[in-house]
Design goal:
alpha+beta; S-adenosylmethionine decarboxylase; six-stranded antiparallel β-sheet; spermidine biosynthesis; S-adenosyl-L-methionine; pyruvate; lyase; polyamine biosynthesis
């Protein structure tokens, strides 16, 4: 059985409006909105504006982090959402980003982090019983 300590969503959004993702000024409210919508706890954030266009940012969360990079020339946004605790928070933040960025296609990987915790615990119990 998978227990894990968190959910890690790694996604590439294709076909996103290049003007929407060209600047930190446009991305900031979208990313911060995802944090709020996902009921995540923001500790700090940092955003970087590339020249002539493109943006990157990271939000440090009590639950872990949310980061992004944009390539307006390709209509591409790459996202990383890692949250510990209730997996619904990551899913909700992700759904918010899909709604606001409106990609034409998405490539997503969802990883359970720390999924061997229970297995490791069982092995330790078995080893202790042998001694």
């Amino acid at each position: 059985m998978e227990v894990g300590v968190g959910i890690h969503i790694i996604a590439d959004f294709y076909g996103v409006d290049s003007e929407l993702i060209a600047t930190t000024e446009r991305m900031y409210p979208i990313i911060e909105g995802a944090v709020e919508y996902g009921r995540l706890t923001k500790i700090s954030s940092d955003y970087y504006q590339f020249r002539p266009k493109g943006a990157s940012g990271i939000v440090l969360l009590a639950e872990s982090h949310l980061s992004f990079h944009t390539w307006p020339e390709y209509g591409l946004v790459t996202l990383d959402i890692y949250t510990c605790g209730d997996p619904k928070t990551a899913d909700d933040a992700f759904a918010y980003l899909v709604d606001k960025l409106r990609p034409t296609s998405i490539s997503t990987r969802k990883i359970v982090r720390g999924d061997m915790i229970e297995e490791a615990g069982e092995n330790q119990i078995e080893e202790a019983a042998l001694h």
